[in-house]
Amino acid sequence: MNTAIYPQTLPPKTAQLFQVLSQTKPEFLSSFYLSGGTALSLQLGHRESEDLDFFTKAPFQPNQIERQLLPYGTLSETELAPGTLNTYLNGVKLQFLLYPYRLIEPLIPWEDVNLSSVIDIACTKLQTIGMRGSKKDFIDLYFLLQQFSLETLLEQIKKKYDESDYSETHILKSLIYFDDAETQPIPRLHQDVSWNKVKETLVSAVKSIPII
């Protein structure tokens, strides 16, 4: 099945870096796939997203990735930890993360970079909101709910994560806790929706789920 891609959701600096990486194919690139908000925006076309979050199931040495990035420009605010590299390259935020969880659907190749599927990203979004609900995550979930019911997403998350990795009850409560997100800026949207509409939709979706 062909997946529509919306490259216009990448701001100029991110688009330029993405193009350079995809064309030059650094050694690490084939082991990682792009996930998170940017991979979702590329497939839904709903908002601008500037960070590049790369996941892999294969153990890697963060300092080796750092060395391979040096020829591409200036690194700043670099943080290294086992299985994790966070940095800014030419002003673009990059994350490389060891992520051992299964993929529900096959990766999607685009411009010689693999993208995580929408349903896999949706599961990760639910888990992320359970830990920290940002405005952009809630907005992402709103647009995901235009394609999938919350019940469907909760069924899919069971396939991706073990029960010990998340709490469905906690996720449902987190989906309607907006206090921390209220003062955060709304990302640049490519499809119109109000913050109030996002909240109303999430509250309605949660109310549709029977809590045992």
The assigned CATH architecture of the largest domain is 2-Layer Sandwich
In CATH, what is the class of the largest domain? Alpha Beta
Residue runs with pLDDT of under 50 for 5 or more positions = none
Largest sheet: 7 strands, mixed
- Reading the helices and strands in chain order gives HEHEHEEEEEHHHHH
Tally of distinct domains = 2
Classify the fold: give the CATH topology of the largest domain. Beta Polymerase, domain 2
The global form is globular
Q: Which structural class matches the secondary elements? A: alpha/beta
**What strand order characterises the main sheet?**
3-4-5-2-1-7-6
Helix content: 40-55%
* Overall pLDDT level: 95
Give a structural overview.
- The chain has 8 helices and 7 strands, in the order αβαβαβββββααααα.
- It has 212 residues and is α/β, with parallel strands linked by helices.
- It folds into 2 domains: 7-115, Beta Polymerase, domain 2; 118-207, no CATH class.
- β3 and β4 form a beta hairpin.
- α2 (36-44) packs across α4 (118-131) and α5 packs across α8.
- It is globular, with a radius of gyration of 17 Å.
- The N and C termini lie far apart (37 Å).
- The model has no long low-confidence stretch (mean pLDDT 95).
What's a quick, concise take on this entry?
The chain is 40% helix and 16% strand. The protein has 212 residues and is an alpha/beta fold. The chain folds into two domains: 7-115, Beta Polymerase, domain 2 (2-Layer Sandwich); 118-207, no CATH class.
